[in-house]
Amino acid sequence: MIPERMVNGAVLAGLLVVPLWAMVANEPFTITLATRAVIFALAAVGLNIALGLGGLVSLGHAVFFGLGGYAMGILAHHAQTYTPLMEWPFLIEGTKSMPVIWLVAMVTSALAALVIGLLSLRTTGVYFIMITLAFGQMFYYFAISWAKYGGEDGLSIYVRNGFPGLNTLVPIQFYGLCFGILCLVLVLNAALARSPFGLALNASRQMPTRVETVGLDPMRLKLVAFVISGTITGLAGALFADLNRFVSPTMFSWQMSGEIMIFVILGGVARLFGPVVGAVVFVALEHFLGGLSDYWHIYLGLLLLLIVLFARGGIVGLLSGRERTHD
Amino acid sequence: MSTILIIEQVLNGLQFGVMLFLMAAGLTLIFGVMGLINLAHGSLYMIGAFAAAAVAGLTGSFLLALIAAMAAAAMAGVLIETVVIRRLYATDHLDQVLATFALILIFSEGTRWVFGSFPLFLDIPDALSGPVSLPGGIEYPFYRLVLIGVGLVVAIGLGLLINRTRIGIQIRAGENDREMIAALGVDISRLYTLVFALGAALAGLAGALVGAIQSVQVGMGEPVLILAFVVIVIGGIGSIKGAFIGALLVGLTDTLGGIFLPELFKLFTDAATATSAGSALASMAIYILMGAILIWRPTGLFGARA
Amino acid sequence: MTDPVLETHHLSKSFGALKATDSVCLDLQPGEIHAVIGPNGAGKSTLIAQICGGLQPDEGRISFQGVDVTALPTRARAKMGLARTFQISALAMEDTVLQNVLLGALGAAGQPWRFFRPVMQDASLRSRAEDALERVGLSDVRTSRTAELSHGQRRQLEVAVALTLQPRAFVMDEPMAGLGVDGSRRLTGFLDELRAEAPILLVEHDMDAVFALADRISVLVYGRVIETGTVAEIRASKAVREAYLGEST
């Protein structure tokens, strides 16, 4: 058994070394794969706050991933076609600036999470899973029929958006940006889990009546967790769209929600690095198994089954063997 | 808009609804009795459709194809119940979602591996094809009427099974009190397998029946699965009656919404905007319906427990 | 008599045809332990749920420190200083003992919206939590996971969480249940002193503890208070003997 701290360290080191090696060896595709993994990890870290800490099994996180994606797609689309986003009551132009896009993606996702959370938290258990799924489907079908922004075909962006001081067209620089954001969010996540809010949220998951009897509102704690969670996944969506320079309704699909959830569970629910490990392993499997066999989903399915049936703590749990804790 | 069109659309909605009911009945029984969320139910639907297409291709008999569909789906159901699902009853919903999601991957890719990526076709038998004339001068496809009939017969049969037979009493007891039923000396694991096989057979039947009016292909199960979930959530999880009413509500909302919402919007805006906005809203209509019902009644129309 | 801290006025609650609470009038005076006893099914738990929130009475009202709290949610009553312990431990089992009392301290401080600084480094919350553990004698196991505690220790932890709230009144649902003779005796001594801090509404099955502690006793039978009085009065009451004590002893 390896201490969880060392597993986490090894993962971080790997995410630092492999892309650098790929840069030296001139393997840009590897860097793209690593970027994909890091962005998926970010989306899953977001979900893990709702799922792991708050116990909210959301099968609709693709909503936020997609909203982030479309925030990027729509702003950049207007910028590249030199058309304003809207003229009345005041003029809003498109933009190619990542920080602005991120801000819009996060605010939009946060608002959506607030509304979806307010409505969904009235239900529990399976009903919560299903109502979040239903919200996902609403956005999915809305995006498909929104012809103005490409409908089913989605939107393509010709040139990746810019970040002050960086050339985001260089794969390693864009990777560095995404990796930096992931690290920052992980630091915030670690702080959150140990904070008074984290303690109260954690207790709300386990025993909401207890939380009420000490004078706190477990629903409101969960709602705030859901909003934070959606905001982070929304940011990941904006980055993902920028990686592909493309956004389409599939970002809203329920399979996307399912995949984000797989990252979390594969790696280990409620563990800080669980979602990161899950996303990295998933992307690696997708690449290697996909290269070996056209039917790689069979092997992925078998692996997931084995994890669920025999390794409850996910991969991180398998390696570090510790029961899940939050400190 | 003519009365004929409206009647046609209502029939289409009913037909869609009863097929959804075949899916939803199994899902809701499995959840009600075993407390399990089975995402792989759509795979059983797909297996039924493929088995029917294969057998119909070999024998030319639609009846044999239907029997094969139910048998194949039931066998697949028994297989996954005994190998995988059984281990999930005591676990939380998260594990169930993930494990049955994994089963979808395995079944979908497995089917692609065996049958290839191209859609298969299942023909409507001659005796059931062609339109029939209904009172009022409506020409309506006979096969779709047959589907409505089959759906209603299954619904009545299930109702009788649950309410009137020994096995039905055991199933209802299983929903209420597991210990009680074990105390009555019922072999609970056999009951679970039986319920699972029954649900699977119904899904397989739905797959075969619908396969004859759509193409049979990998991935056909998931859209239906999600709608079936919407149905049971609206109806209240565990309730057959709820599943039936929910299925008809969803079937009618989806079909009628697609026709009437664009028309409705045309009253307010120009035709192009109305068509796009109307169809956008129509495709979201059932999810809006579900959201609204859950906000109004957090455990569905006929649901007792969360 | 001074103004009561907690008072119920003709509280009633029915489940279908069953009258679980039938026009119950109780009051809790400063500095006293008021015990509520009654046979199983007398409606004690239903009564507590209405007093602490979580169950709305059909009729009647509840006032706490002179304020009508009938319509307030559980958490608002807790914030006003009403601390409850549960019959079946309601603790965060995956968390440590210290984390559970910290939650109480956090609730009392009313500051859950802090996202960055570790809760363990908050000196005031921590000292409040550690004090409570010290008082119930759980300091030694503060880093244990709650799931690993013995039954008796969990009961002590319930009391400790209530202490962190520094409440104006305690409502305790069978705190002695499942404690051994020693444990019962220790908790009895502890509650005896605690009443000076805040009065206690004590629902309890352990008659030795009740007779040792209670300033007043109310006897609940089929949802109705059939007698309220001092230990001696209750012992002497014919109605109580017939309805309750006669059956159980």
Polypeptide structure, described:
The complex is a heterotrimer of chains A (327), B (306) and C (249). Chain A has 327 residues and is an all-alpha fold. Chain A has helices at residues 4-24, 28-53, 62-80, 98-120, 125-145, 171-194, 196-206, 208-213, 218-244, 254-267, 274-292, 296-310, 314-320; strands spanning 155-156, 246-247. In chain A, strands 1-2 form a two-stranded antiparallel sheet. With 306 residues, chain B is mostly helical. Chain B has helices spanning 3-34, 41-59, 62-83, 93-115, 142-164, 166-176, 178-183, 188-211, 221-235, 240-266, 271-296; strands spanning 131-134, 138-141. In chain B, helix 2 runs parallel beside helix 4 and helix 2 (41-59) crosses helix 8. Chain B is globular and about 65 Å long. In chain C, helix 3 packs across helix 4 (123-136) and helix 4 packs across helix 5. The radius of gyration of chain C is 18 Å and the shape is globular. Chains A and B meet through helix 5, helix 10 and helix 12 of A and helix 4, helix 9 and helix 11 of B.
